[in-house]
TrEMBL record:
Species this protein is from: Gigaspora rosea
A Pfam match: Cation_ATPase
Region entry Disordered, spans: 1333-1358, 1381-1406
Lineage, top ranks: Eukaryota, Fungi, Fungi incertae sedis, Mucoromycota, Glomeromycotina
Family: Belongs to the cation transport ATPase (P-type) (TC 3.A.3) family. Type IV subfamily.
Protein name: Phospholipid-transporting ATPase
Assigned GO CC terms: plasma membrane
Amino acid sequence: MLKRLKFWERPEPQVCARQVFVNEPLPPSKLDKKGRPRQRYVTNKITTSKYSIFSFVPKNLYEQFHRVANFFFLLLVILQWFPEFATINPIVAALPMFIITGVTAIKDGFEDFKRHVTDRSVNNRMTWTLGNWTNYNYPNSTSKFFSFRSKNSEKLNEKEGPKWKETMFRHVRVGDFIKLHNDDFIPADILILSTSEPNSLCYVETKNLDGETNLKIRSSVPEIDHIETPEDCTSIRFFIDSQPPAPNLYSYNATLVFPDGLPDRPRSRGPTKIPVNLNSLLLRGCVLKNTEWVIGLVVFTGTDTKLALNSGETPSKRSQIERLMNPQIIANLVIMTLMCVWCAVGTRVWEGGFSDLDPPYLASADNLSYNAFMTFWNALICFQNIVPISLYLSMEFVKSVQAFFIFMDKEMHYGVTDTPCIPKNWNLSDDLGQIEYMFSDKTGTLTRNVMEFRKCSIGGRVYGEYTSNKGGGASEAENELVKKPFTDKELLIDMQSADQLKSGTIKDFFTLLAICHTVLVSTNSDGEPQYKAQSPDEAALVQAAKDVGYTFRSRESDSIFITTPEGEKVHYELMNILEFTSARKRMSIIVRNPLNGHIILFCKGADNVIFERLRIGQDYIANVTGEHLEEFAREGLRTLCLGYTEISQEQYAKWNFEFREASTALNDRDKRLATVYDKIEKDLILLGATAIEDRLQDGVPECIATLKRAGIKIWVLTGDKMETAISIGFSTCLLNREMNLIIIRGGAYGEPGSAYEQMRNAVEKFFPSDLDILESAKAPPVVPNYNGSRPSMSHTREMSFGGISLFSNLSNANRPGGYALVIDGSALKYTLEESFSRSLLLDLACRCKGVICCRVSPLQKAKVVELVKEGKQAVTCAIGDGANDVSMIQAAHIGIGVAGEEGLQAVMASDYAIAQFRFLTRLLLVHGHYAYIRNSSLILNFFYKNMIGVGVLFWFQLFDGYSTTVVFEYTYTLFWNLFFTCCAVLAIGVFDRDVPDRVAIEVPELYQWGMKKKGYTMAIFFIFLLEGVYQSLVCFFIPYFAYGLGSVNASGHQPDYLELGTEMAAACITVANLFNGFNAECWTVFHFIAVFGSIGLFYIYVAIYSLVPDMPDSGIYGFNNIVYRSAVFWFCIILSIVISILPRFLWKYWQRNYLPTDVDIVKEVCKEDLQYDFLHDSRFNPTLGLYKNLTHESALSGQESSVPIYTDGIFTHTPRPSFTTERSSSATSGLHVITHSLEQFSGGEVPETPASMTFMRTGITSPMRGYAFSQEEGTGRIMAPPLRRRKTNPGPLGRVFRMETSPIRRMSLPDVRASADVTDAIIGEERIRMVQFRESSSTNTSNIHSRRESESLDESDLIQPRLTSSSEPIVAMEVINEDVNDNIDEGNTNINQEKDTDNTDQEMTE
């Protein structure tokens, strides 16, 4: 019923399929009785605002009355209209509530008005649609009732004919023909009919949807790609059978139905159906690129588009403190109810004792129960201040000022674009200080979408110097987005060298970069080529070749044109392109050299796939290049290897025949092509390697490292590919080289290698002693039977002596850097759908120090945020810059939009808008931390100061016969919250702070005070209430006993109750203001004015008010001469102050001296030296006492141990890591603990431990080397890394020993060489698990064997696996001394290369 009343909510999207008719009248079955279309389509208007003109009042009131206090205030207003309860005019009594709700409504309306402005700017964008033409999917525009649906329609003019006209986005309709031009935003989901490019292709930028900056290729429907003119659009007849609107960004199915056949074919053929998929659909939010024009047909509009379905409705958010206020208000209401019941019962008992005497002061002695009932409601009005209505108005004022401070903060102002930090939701400032989980997009949020060529290794020599621009020390002008050309003096010298081998290698290297790609080129007005690529890496490589002199000019279907540094024009005949795929990890191009006619294959790809395809005899250059790759990887650069080979004419002719056969095959085309590619991509000559930097935004690594020190868990949710996401993880300090990466990829439960099974295996492998996570995982359902082989994960998740554990510091289960979880979108899809997998994912992810979700859709991002928000009950924050981030921004408690290059969608839906990711440091650690402290203290002190006043009124009822008489003069109560006690708490809410802003950033651990909610809890709330009750007792009974035992004033009269009430009011107001000031974290001039000004204001008011004669309802005339001359008056005030504040003073004294918090310690340091340098003090330990209370999850995730900041009077410190020297280490606090443990392991030398990657689908653990093109599970193999150059002569061979094992498979293990001492260590710590193998060896394996046969010098460094008979139960293990890690990794290369085919013959035999 309540849902029906909420008429402002948007209707659910239509889930039925739709038929869109083009130049085809609708059949009668599609029309209603009045001849109008049954199918109704939503408009193309996009709305991110919460309110409309009609829904503003009811919806805003509905949201405001979520506050329990507002119902109470409404009840009081209603009571005031009854004469029996009226204390003042009912209209005057209702004014406070009207003012508060009105001010809140105005503020909410102003915030939403800004959203309307941005919505209007998007909806009023212009595009081109077909005019003077009939769209049969809509009713006739002449219909009066439906005229508002056809605002852009016009009367047909048959003389002019159809033509293109400009139309606003919001007027685009389903079934409209639309024409887009280059760089146009796509206004709706559009089916491509034809394009200006050959083969009807077009290029689209989808970063607003999936975060990827590379261009995507889309194509039109081939059967109708002849459409070019408006006349062509009106002459074709068909309709579209489309699936209903769906949020899946990667799937779409529809059918084009031509009732009379295709236009260029005989009609006698009858209806023709053409299938259409996502490849022919342009989605709203994308941008058309490098295409002159596209003609399409609108299929989905407005809220039916995939972008809108992934965004959701703008939610109404309330802060955590405000949510906690509801139970506190209820507690106060319960206390007030008990007080009213006490007064009612007391009235009944007290009056009952005098009822026989019939006293005249009893209104009705005959009905004592009625008197008690009336007393209850009068007491409710008397004690109403226990729930302060002015608290909400004060909070709105304070939060507005805090929003103003954020807006005016110059340190969050981005000068390059003149963009400040804009608070769009003023209610959430205190939530900024409680964030525990942060979810961040990658593209455009962490990165700049800019790739720069930094270094290269050519012929064993490194060229180029790497200078990181990721720090925050440079000025904004220096860090402005400027690409510098790649130059190196030594490179230019070597290019002109007389050494033909050296100069020739450099020439071939940059020639490869200039021609081996799929880059598109255009020419600007200056004649300079401009490059656009599907991958930003490719554009950077081609640009680097251009910087050196090898300029890519143009590409035809059969040739590539470049110019050399000498100005020579070279035309290469393009023969074949072997495309890049995520499985191949490489791209090749076959060309004919114009100089000698030789056929050359140029290949670029991941280091592992290139090295295994090298020609025999290149071990030295491979070793040197491998070391350079290691160096590039340590610097966070994206690596790529280059090679080439010459092909004979006969070999090419034979291969090309096989290639054409495979490319035209109807079955298994991709698999056959991959096999053919492998036959030609071999015997490569290594040219070198490239290193590209994916430029981050300024200060991103420092910001993430600081936020991690503050205890915030950062998750990266991106639509980008896995290796790119991992690369950015290392560059941004989210990941470090001491971590073990847990890779989860899989499908639904019950399928081979399901996501649930992988997560379960990860728990058993890495957290075997954590019973909590094992018990929390719910029992899954029964596994369905599958007709195929299913690998046993229990035996593949741990390797025996595959060498991976040896390479990764003996045990990957106890790495010093903890763990990081990387999960892809396919695994996440099923995990979020399965309840038992959801809980396991949440528990596993929360035990990891970093989480990366890649290839996720916008809706999946929102579901991940909701999973953590609901499962952990923690405050979450989402930050992004594109339309694909809107859903998670709206799902999180706080959404932050980055005003970047991806439009305004994220900013429009956000709560705060910033220009740079690095501003999060100040936004959270300074403004968020301050807002939490200020708002918490404001609310607690507000409840306290009202409790002390109400308490005095209640104690007076014990002595006035429970008559609900107010002991104070009425104006004292009226101005209590307005003038006398509010200024001090407002000063706290606006100006209070525990430490200076500089210190809040330098010591980010202080942020955990708000994250752990230590400043505002129910316990603290009741402590303040009890202090209010205690102080009300003091302020009541001291004046009561002083005046009630025969005190006589200067005129010789005993004081009446108003004089007593003035004494009590003066004591309460003075104590309340001083107590509020005592609770302030700092004292500024504003605090001083507010506290003492409020106290002085009361005494001045009494003095002035008592001079006014004949004041209605006033009995304090002349009090200035009575109370101010009385020594008892001043003595009672002083005594009340001392006794009231003494307990709090004693507690604070003991706590600060004997149980200090981290804030207390830092404040003492600042008090001794305000300019104390916390940042660069080498003795300062960044891990404060708050880290002593580590959670069980953080302990299991490898969280480093810590020590208190203050020990035995000495401050202990640890230097903060340098981001320029070792960025990966900066993300790990307590680095000295890790170093110490490694020193113990290695005997004083800290080994260089690369991050390891564990693919839970296969159980394989391998070192993480190349970032951008590192191995990715899915190819079924792990390639051999390059051999390291030997630095010492090989020692003698170690002893040979044999190990007895039980044959648990049909295939036995290969012999693996390992160092004896290292092997013994592993035997003592890890169980031995077997690995499955294939019998047949692949071509790649034979290549590696052929390489090894020629390596006589380094033969001892290599593993020599040999397959033994299946019945042999013994595995022989030969031992050598050196290069164990490389050897074992090499051995696993062969093992896993043999696992690349089906598993039907690999079932285990128990």
